[in-house]
Write a structure and sequence with these properties.
Blueprint lengths: L1 H5 L2 H16 L6 H15 L9 H21 L7 H21 L10 H23 L6 H34 L12 E2 L2 E2 L2 H24 L3 H18 L13
Antiparallel strand pairs: 1-2
Length: 254
Amino acid sequence: LRQAACGGPTGLKRFRQMLVNMVMATDVIDKELNGFRNARWERAFGGDTDLEESEKDKVDRKATIVIEHLIQASDVAHTMQHWHIYRKWNSRLFLEMYGAFVAGRSDKDPSETWYEGELAFFDYYVIPLAKKLAECGVFGVSSSEHLSYAERNRKEWADRGHDVVAEILFQAKEKYGRHAMKPFTRDIRRTGREMSRRNLLKAGMDMEEEEIDTKATDQSTPTSENHVKDSDMDDEKTQGNSVTPHIVPERIEI
């Protein structure tokens, strides 16, 4: 299969490079990588042409960059489909991230920025990506359909997003609330001021240590009431274990 797909060591090396690029294309956080990909897109589909570049190299570059963008689109495909599909996978992602927050694997409560984050995600990533796919025509007549769904989902989210967040937050608390490590770590606010999750966890551990120390002190130092009771019990035990004196009966004269 490798021989048929790659045709030799050179083709295998080329295939590996493409595979690595496709995996790295899903990293949307790295600004440097995103800038590099955008520059490659402009070089492949922009108006500037390199006269010294062969036609084969141009075709290969276009194919490579399109494949990378297809992987990106598959990674966020729910945003470019019908609203109910977008809602379904958006809710599942929220539940997963909220579960990580409750379990202590994340310091950030997703409900605080979920609404604004989705709008920014549409504006700066999803819609520009859908426009590129429509521009290159990789999906044929369906290329504009994905862009249309992305724009409609963005508008729907702007109108109903706050209600959606409230609904899935309720589901998340119902699902994960009883699994929290400490009752108060689920709340960011405590005593009227904003505290980070790490501070909450540290406060919880300090409280546990104080409780343990208090219990140990209570067990080692008896109270006055217990001391009196213990003393009375010791006296009773001593009296019970003492030897009863022999009483000689009185002598009766007949």
